[in-house]
Design brief:
The protein is mostly helical. The chain has one domain. Helices cover 77% and strands 0% of the residues. It has helices at 3-23, 40-66, 72-86, 88-97, 102-127, 131-137, 141-157, 161-176, 181-184. α1 (3-23) runs antiparallel to α2 (40-66) and α4 (88-97) runs antiparallel to α5. Belongs to the TMEM175 family. GO terms for molecular function: potassium channel activity; proton channel activity. It catalyses: K(+)(in) = K(+)(out).
Length: 185
Amino acid sequence: MGKGRLEAFSDGVIAIIITIMVLELKVPHGEGLEALRPLIPVFLSYVLSFIYVGIYWNNHHHLVHVVTKISGGVLWGNLHLLFWLSLIPFVTGWMGENNYSSIPVACYGFVLFMCSFAFLILARCLEADNEVLRTAIGSDRKGKLSMLLYAIGIAVSCAHPGLGFAVYALVAAVWFIPDRRIERR
């Protein structure tokens, strides 16, 4: 199969994920700035999640851009990634609506961890038939470090949810600038 169908499907799912997240933002009742105050946690959760979805969309594009053929394993790896990405709106809303309490923040981190793991699997599936991609990604220290930081964020969230959220924001900051390893090849 060519990569066009995979890209189009993935782009569509990611667009729907972003749409669901923005629809969860409720309009405040009141016209003053004080009416926005209760929405701050929800909005901050949305911003971080939007950045994460954008990072995955960007890096997915870089991965798929290099390959010429898509195997069955790649299709399943891609669906696995999209499954975990599709849970981001749920945990985003849960975390924001509950003012960053421990369990929702830890679950948010778990979903981010699984997105990272699924992306690693997809990359490995794509690397199987592509030497350029395999060389560009190498041992993927950045991806593995991210997974370690997610695990730390999940553990820390149990006692200090704000610190767990900060760890997730740190990982997003590390990935905010697109991964140049593939572009250089």
